[in-house]
Write a structure and sequence with these properties.
Number of strands: 9
Shape: elongated
Number of helices: 21
Structural class: alpha/beta
Strand content: 5-15%
Strand order of the largest sheet: 5-4-6-7-8
Radius of gyration: 32 Å
Order of helices and strands: HHHHEHHHHHHEHHHHHHEHEHEHEHEHEE
Number of domains: 3
Length: about 525
């Protein structure tokens, strides 16, 4: 059975990926080995990350029942949020309808006023949604332009406030991390697309459903317990025939279900319910005055309630589809998978022979999982031309296979020109088969990224697309016999902060130089 991801799972995943809670050495690797023992290669990244998330949850909550994860808090808050909105929609719908249907026995309720207040705004919103979806393809979530992103922002602020109610269930550190994680709602579109906006869309439809239910229930209640009279009038003075054609057109969706006079008033009933202000109600017949309420109820049902029900089903299906298509290929997940698939590393000193340090020796003592090599992600290696004489492409590719579990299939000598190098990247990507691919960019860490470098990286991103993982592989100052020296902590921090300023969730910085290390 395929793994089903939920939004609460994504929140917990980001919570753990961005957190600083210490883990025992080898935790990620042990989780991977346990996963690989029960499953055959090639392994699904979605299933692997979900397995890690479940084990991480177990560890986080073991022996601490007070510790509540962001996903659980979100699930409680979204239910509370929807209940509050549903109650508000019921109250507003019932109050407005009850007020419109107030009848003192002197002047009938104008059916046009009821339609204008209760139905026209809803129809206009639906038309705006339809027009927006047509002009923006199937991206219906954007069809309200900034409406749903605005609602997402309001929801985030509400979650932060309501989250204080559950503050005593979380530690101080977890409260801070939860607040930062809530910021993902509606913001992490680069990584998760519209996943975090669909709950807002669905909540809006749920609010509309309860609003229309309140209208219909209040209408039926007033009809049952009071003697309501409906009529129509307009300053434009349309004739009964014109009004009859209008109501016939409005009632087309349910004319196949019921026939006049239940579907809509007949021509005689429309003529008999026309209100003339100076003549009052005395000349109007009761059978004509009560003929309008079924038409009003059907109008709310077919133009208000049913479209909201259909949109709610549509939103639920699209949310499930959006969750199913997540590839978990952004930088944080790449780091996690890399940690899980990399054998444990121990440092081993070599006997001093000469001042020139010898190249590192690799001694694998832990068997590599079956898919650690065969399942390596294809990569495009980019090496600046001034570094080609210093870093052999073949040796660099071998080191990338060892350190990043990626297989460079093509090497591009970069001219550090966004247009030229971007075209080469596009061509290289076009030559690869469909599937996950990464771009590895070799850089010397001791040379900090300048404005031109960052602009060049943005040009490569534009050429590669928004969801192609890019890794900046850092090396330190080269030494004789070993160009792959590790970058200093200061240099690496400078690069990481500069890259974070770009705001690219699929771009990460990793050290390629490891020093004298051996696998054990």
């Amino acid at each position: 059975m395929p793994i089903q991801w939920r939004i609460r799972d994504l929140l917990d995943l980001e919570f753990f990926l961005s957190g600083n809670n210490p883990l025992p050495d080898g935790f990620d690797r042990d989780v991977y080995l346990a996963f690989a023992e029960t499953r055959s290669a090639p392994h699904s990244r979605r299933e692997l990350i979900r397995y890690w998330l479940d084990r991480r949850r177990e560890r986080e909550t073991a022996g601490d029942r007070e510790n509540t994860l962001p996903g659980a808090v979100y699930a409680e808050l979204i239910v509370l949020f929807r209940i509050l909105l549903a109650m508000l929609a019921l109250f507003i719908g019932a109050t407005v309808t009850w007020s419109l249907l107030s009848y003192q026995g002197q002047q009938p309720v104008n059916v046009f006023t009821c339609l204008w207040v209760l139905l026209v705004p809803q129809v206009l919103l639906l038309l705006l949604l339809l027009v927006g979806s047509v002009f923006r393809g199937t991206r219906i979530i954007r069809s309200f332009f900034l409406l749903y992103p605005l609602m997402a922002g309001l929801a985030r602020r509400l979650f932060r406030r309501v989250g204080g109610i559950m503050a005593n269930r979380m530690t101080a550190d977890n409260r801070e991390r939860f607040r930062s994680t809530v910021g993902l709602l509606g913001q992490a579109r680069t990584v998760y697309g519209s996943v975090f906006l669909w709950p807002v869309f669905n909540t809006a439809q749920l609010t509309g459903i309860f609003f229309n239910l309140a209208i219909i229930a209040t209408l039926l209640l007033r009809v049952t317990i009071t003697d309501l009279a409906f009529g129509w009038q307009s300053t434009l003075q349309p004739g009964p025939e014109t009004v009859h054609r209008i109501v016939q057109s409005i009632s087309l969706p349910w004319n196949w279900l019921v026939a006049p006079p239940l579907s809509h008033p007949t021509l005689d009933q429309i003529a008999g319910s026309k209100m003339v202000l100076k003549e009052g109600i005395f000349r109007l017949a009761t059978r004509d005055l009560v003929a309008w309420w079924p038409f009003l109820a059907f109008s709310i049902l077919f133009y208000g309630l049913i479209p909201r029900l259909l949109l709610a089903v549509f939103g639920y299906v699209r949310k499930r589809r959006a969750l199913k298509t997540l590839d978990f290929a952004h930088a944080a997940c790449d780091r996690l998978v890399q940690r899980m698939q990399t054998p444990r590393i121990n440092t081993e000193s070599r006997p001093y022979v000469e001042k020139v340090p010898p190249p590192p020796r690799l001694h694998p003592v832990e068997p590599m999982a079956a898919d650690a090599i065969s399942g390596q992600t294809p990569a495009i290696l980019i090496i600046p031309q001034e570094l080609l004489a210093q870093f052999d492409p073949g040796e660099t590719a071998d080191r990338i296979r060892t350190c990043f579990a990626m297989n460079p299939v093509e090497t591009i000598p970069a001219e550090i020109d966004a247009v030229t190098d971007g075209k080469r990247v596009s061509t290289a990507l076009g030559n690869l088969p469909d599937g996950p691919v990464r771009i590895v960019i070799l850089q010397e860490a001791w040379q900090p990224p300048i404005k031109e470098t960052l602009s060049w990286l943005r040009g490569l991103r534009e050429a590669a697309g928004n969801s192609v993982g890019m890794v900046i592989a850092l090396v330190g100052k080269p030494m004789a016999g070993n160009p792959f020296t590790p970058p200093t902590d200061t240099d690496r921090t400078v690069w990481e902060r500069s890259i974070q300023g770009i705001g690219d969730a699929y771009l990460r910085v990793e050290p390629l130089g490891k020093g004298d290390q051996t696998n054990e």
